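Consider the tokenized backbone below.
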């Protein structure tokens, strides 16, 4: 994704693009208010990454959505990029599953 904010709505979902942790806090707060949930995905350790930046921005926004951070949480071994992304739990299947879980959490909240 690139720096411009990309929003695609399908039901109660919004996708915000970020590169290098750059995003507009106002767009993030709006997405949090509209959807009640935020999912971040990064292909490195979770500490100090985009997920932490999102939590920091939300801390000053007043919005308190459910937040789920997908990231690499173990030292990767050998394999193809597709295998490593799957093993780390950040492939399309894992992202879709986490999004469904968050949508279900919002529906029951």
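A designed sequence for it:
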């Amino acid at each position: 994704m690139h720096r411009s904010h990309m929003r695609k709505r399908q039901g109660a979902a919004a996708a915000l693009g970020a590169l290098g942790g750059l995003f507009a806090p106002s767009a993030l707060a709006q997405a949090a208010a509209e959807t009640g949930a935020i999912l971040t995905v990064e292909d490195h350790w979770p500490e100090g990454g985009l997920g932490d930046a999102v939590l920091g921005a939300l801390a000053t926004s007043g919005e308190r959505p459910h937040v789920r951070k997908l990231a690499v949480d173990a030292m990767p071994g050998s394999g193809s990029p597709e295998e490593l992304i799957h093993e780390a739990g950040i492939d399309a299947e894992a992202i879709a599953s986490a999004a469904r879980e968050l949508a279900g959490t919002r529906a029951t909240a």
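The chain is about 40% helix and 10% strand.
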